[in-house]
Amino acid sequence: MQNFGVLRRQVVSAVAIAMLASTWAGAAFGFQEAPQLKALVDAGSLPPVEERLPTNPLVLTPLESVGSYGGTWRTATFGGGDSEIERTIGYSRLVRWNFEWTEVIPDIAESVEVNADATEYVFTLRAGTRWSDGEPFTADDLVFWNENVLRNTEITPSPPAWLMAGGEPVKVEDLGDNKVAFKFAAPNGLFLMNMATVRGADILAGAPAHYLRQFHKEFNPDGIEALVKAAGATDWVQLFNNKVGFPGRWRDLGRPTLDPWVMSSPYSGTTQVVGERNPYYPKVDTEGNQLPYIDRITIDVMEDTQAIILKAISGDIDMQNRFIETTDARPVIVQNREKGGYDLFIARPAWSNALLITLNQTHKNPALRAVFSNKDFRIGLSHAINREELNQLIYAGQAKPYQAAPREGTALYDEQMATQYLEYNVDLANEYLDKAGIAERDAEGFRLGSDGKRITFAIDALTGSPIQVDALEMIQRYWRAVGIDMQPRPAERSLIFARLQTNDNDGLGWVGGGGYDFLGLLDPKWYFPHEQESSFATAWGLYYQNPNDPNAEEPSPAAKKQMDLYRQVQEAPTVEAALALMKELLAITRDEFYIIGTNLEPDRVGIVKTNMHNVPDVIPSTSFYMMPGPAKPETFYYAQ
Amino acid sequence: MVGYIIRRLLYMIPMMAVISMVTFIIIQLPPGDFLTAMTARLASQSESIDPGVLAGLRERYGLDQPWVVQYWKWISGIVLRGDFGQSFDWNKPVSELIWGRLNLTMVVSVTTLIFVWAVAFPIGIYSAVRQYSVGDYFATFLGFLGLAIPNFLLALVLMFVSAQYFGQSVGGLFSPDYINAAWSWGKFADLMSHMWIPIIVLGTGSTAALIRIMRANLLDELNKPYVDMARARGLGEIRLLLKYPVRVALNPFISTVGWVLPHLVSGAVVVSIVLSLPTTGPLLLSALFAQDMYLAGSFILLMSMLTLIGTLISDLLLAWLDPRIRNG
């Protein structure tokens, strides 16, 4: 299997992604297909495989070997709006991540060219690509999505930011010859990267014009009312959104897709989702076998993670990492390998830190604001944490002391940023805290703030993350030793978010993001005040999103500089340019030391059936990567 | 009697209005709204939602309006059109969601109820008649054990046992092969093979309680003069027992029928979650977590209504059962 050393950052320009796998070596032998489809062709109910595939289909190179057809891939998910179904069945877009997560590569589109200022993206589509119902997929479909879904103000009152630039939503033009141009009013350098994430699925979901026209008022003015009534929707807009939005679109069995499997049991929110092989899936392996290899995929919808773990160890799950990879589940997962008939693979967390601690520098209480925004205060607290002991007691020695910084081996890695102030030294900590102007203490030894009152604050953490709460309880002891009174406050997550929205948070204990380059570029909330979730300076984050927000506040000059830099990142025409700017931004993050990190998130394990092949040994794990989508589930297969 | 029933039904109308309003206020009490909850959920999966999209949704769902307006929108829909509104989280009509899950909930609850009664009545009667016998102590011991073990723990243990030793698929009411299958004998057998876990888990706690109530009530009755008199008139022991003291001892069961109806809908949320049962309980809980107010509100409203109807039914049953109440 593949050595994971490849996951080093070798970031290639997004411009150069054109023409990667264009010629197909096995053309002379013709295409092969699954036996069940062959039977349908022979019976005359399905056109021959040559007519179902594009003239020049995308060739995927299997990781280990060319596979054989058959089998069911069983997984499980959590009820509600979970994204598992998008990651396993639904990772199809015009362009996608490569497996190593180092570049964006063509997927449904054959190639893409970007102009010099990143305002125009020309996609070349593969002639002969068909939707899962057999209808052709053409430039018209993308134009339909653009004009009648994205730019229809009833369906999309405010388009998502990644499809906007210069205050205008993207405009799609049909250039003929299977070429479409996505034109922006201003540079939008992160467009392709965003498309490779969870966001990109929306484009193809809104594209099957031949199917969606009937649900669109403009195209079906007379029949729409009856359809709305039959579906029990409030109006046609809601009906339409249910066809194209997540997760509604996974409840619609009639929806044509370009995914490897087509849903045959809807995502009703209970029981089970089933996908059957898409007879028109436009990809083949190196020997001309139409993909996917696996016939069916089933996703059991569970209400409880313990039940998913139990399913896994009794062998009812074939390949999965989510919900069973938590540190506390690891021992049973590892112990039951033989009984469950599975091997392990590493699901490498893309986030940077197992627990980072933020202190709200824009706190409404002036005394707390004064100390929180004092860098010496934060340095002092950082030195007061015994990270090695935390690692041993909480993470079974699997972690390592680390600040909230990009992971080692990435392009954005900055050694100083990752390792500064890590040393556990109570004297040094006290020295820094004294320097922060809070040397005075009360009778119990707690330090006093500028208002003469004891400095006391709460750190919110998710009730659903007991490990983080445990860690915070240890940190509470470390900080008490240097005279700081911190209270861990486990809370339900929507309560935490309601506090963030109104800038009422003291501090937050959370997993750190931005471990990998693309994650840092696309979701920089822990590196500068980017949104309300940037809980080290909530009011500044709100300002960045909307300066008129009643809870927003004008940021510090350093944060303002970062905001300018990030706007430039968004406009950078190449990945290199974006990363260079991001490095500049991160240098400020390092100097400001906004967030106290504790330990690097330890590797996690997923399971894969012993007879399932082409599954990588190590896969980056995050929703931004769409784990396991880029690992090419359509090439997974079972040994007979 | 008819006048009494009509009067009772009329009282229910203002009661329901008050309940619906209180329900709605309580659901709105926690800070934030559905979209806050959604953002939070996405963030905990390290996903994020576009602020622009969020603003659009807030407007679309009417979350930017005061609660009175939202309440009116909801309640007028129910009263005027029988429309319980749309669930934000599911993008589906609330009624569709609730009725979809109600059937299996009823199956599980009614079966459990029958199991509980079938087990508890004979044991309760036996315990009372043979007070302080070995059998009584044994039944009492088992009863307390059932009462003491937390349901969710028992559920986890039984699930583990069934997976480990019987090779059954974990969670839910069906094996994966049957989940989406049409009804057949195979599916029915599969349902039955999965039903025993929820029935035992849900049943143990209430069985114990019922045994104790039955025992205590019956002991009160057994020493009363009318029992001696019936016995003196030569009635067979079993016939006597069932015809008089047991009938009187049944009173508390009948008067709690009112609680059975809402329990059928909301019953045993925690157990349903642990066992991943496709019943209404987990749906209500997730609706509350997601602050999906129309769904949660409709649920609670439905349960309140069932409580009111159930209370009425138990009053009528009591009147039928016990002449003293009828004449009172």
Task: Provide a compact summary of the structure.
The complex is a heterodimer of chains A (640) and B (328). Chain A is 30% helix and 19% strand.
Give structural notes.
Chain A: Residues 1-27 form the signal peptide. Chain A: Its main location: periplasm. Chain A has 640 residues and is of the alpha+beta class. In chain A, helix 14 runs antiparallel to helix 17 (426-435) and helix 22 runs antiparallel to helix 23 (575-592). Chain B folds into 2 domains: 2-94, no CATH class; 95-326, Orthogonal Bundle (MetI-like fold). Chain B has helices at residues 2-28, 34-44, 51-60, 67-81, 94-129, 134-148, 151-165, 185-222, 225-232, 237-243, 245-249, 251-255, 257-266, 269-274, 280-289, 293-321, 323-327; strands at 86-87, 92-93. A two-stranded antiparallel sheet of chain B has the order 1-2. In chain B, helix 5 runs parallel beside helix 16. The radius of gyration of chain B is 24 Å and the shape is globular. Chain B starts with a helix and ends with a helix. At the A-B interface, helix 9, strand 14, helix 10 and helix 19 of A face helix 2, helix 3, strand 2, helix 5 and helix 7 of B.
